[in-house]
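Let us work through a complete example step by step.
Step 1: write down the sequence.
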Amino acid sequence: MIEKIKELEKISRLLEPNAAARSVNRKKVVDYTEDFLENIHSLNAFDMTEDKGKGIFSSPISEEPINMDEAIKLIFENVDTHGLNPASGGHLGYIPGGGIYYSALGDYMADITNRYAGIFFASPGAVRMENLLIQWMVEMIGYDADSSGNLTSGGSMANLIAIVTARDAHKIKARNIETTVIYLGKQAHHSVEKAIRIAGLEECIKRYVPLDESYRMIPSELEKMIENDQANGLTPWLVIAAAGTTDTGAIDPLDSLGDITKRHHLWFHVDGAYGAFFALTDEGKALLKGIEKSDSVIMDPHKGLFLPYGLGVVLIKDKRHLYQAHQYIASYMQDALKNTEELSPADLSPELTKHYRSLRLWLPLKILGVAPFRACLEEKLLLAKYFYERIKHTKGFEVLLEPQLSVIVFRYIPEKGDADTFNQRIIEEIHTDGRVFFSSTTLEGKFMLRLAILSFRTHLDTIDLALAIINEKVAKILANG
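Step 2: predict the structure and record it as tokens.
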């Protein structure tokens, strides 16, 4: 047995490269990423290719290793040259993610040190770091010291945690679920509907509150619905509003909605995955007035703070509800009960295994300070206004509404022919071109072009390029008939 153990040990030690091997391979990785960053402004935002990275299958996982050069070549040829390039400032579709450099360094340190950040007993420093960040965001949106939250993988998990917490706080049980009512707008993100289903609430009655001409929920209509449902023996319990919808960037009238939910004792949840971090700016804070009246809110640092994908946040006004919905004690975790100075993330979310993901947010905030993040958000608001004014005064274009945040929805109206078909051709031409990337949406049955400005690399020259490309593609389509 000893000989077998030693034989296996010799092979298993390959998992621990020595300093020389680490240096050589780290340099290759750094050289590759540095080349990527040095050329980022000349790379396309989108590349349509025929093979779509199928070459990755030519090198299946096997017992035999390959060297770092071969691995990087596979990544370059099959991943980094196909599809959307979210690191590009020309990424103007969906809601752009970020990718700031100091977050990558934070992830590198977190992965090497591999702190387990789920339980205070295991890594008090990592848990304190997460809780410090949570409290900074709690203060940002106007909650008080009784609030808490969790750093999640993204907005979808954050919405799920909030809705489960609301469910348990309002004691929604299987026996009464079919008489309980949830209120939301048609512009609610699909992750909200998904969270409702996963939380076992699909059989709740869902009321879609009418929207105004700016695609915001109408408070008076919500209150009518609530009162009508109460009069009919139903149990209203949850209102879900948006602080920046994905389609149009609309912010629901949070102040009025907060008053209504308080008056009727409903849980008020705000999906601020896209828009909540604009609270760092004076304009954004005014637009988000009333968010502090919510019982829960989500916000995505990988959107509004320009971090790499993989970090969302849920905040709960009363931390007791969050703890009661997610805390669990297992016998094998009994040692962890010895030290409970801070709330542990594992007691505040479905996750037990917890990546040290707070470092990817803490490090850039400490190295750079908050000021550049605020300036970048203010810049995006102004760029959206700039694009709106330019496209509104460009012959042939229709702009649906003035942007509240940094999403602009518009389309070209040809003098003859079908507008939907024409705009589909525009988006296809833009995707084929690849220098910038737009997305599209359908509103009131109309095919619309959609620009979302949130990449930290998107600046005035990017928007001017986007405008030039739009006009170029329209001229090309008109010339070709």
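Step 3: interpret the result. The radius of gyration is 25 Å.
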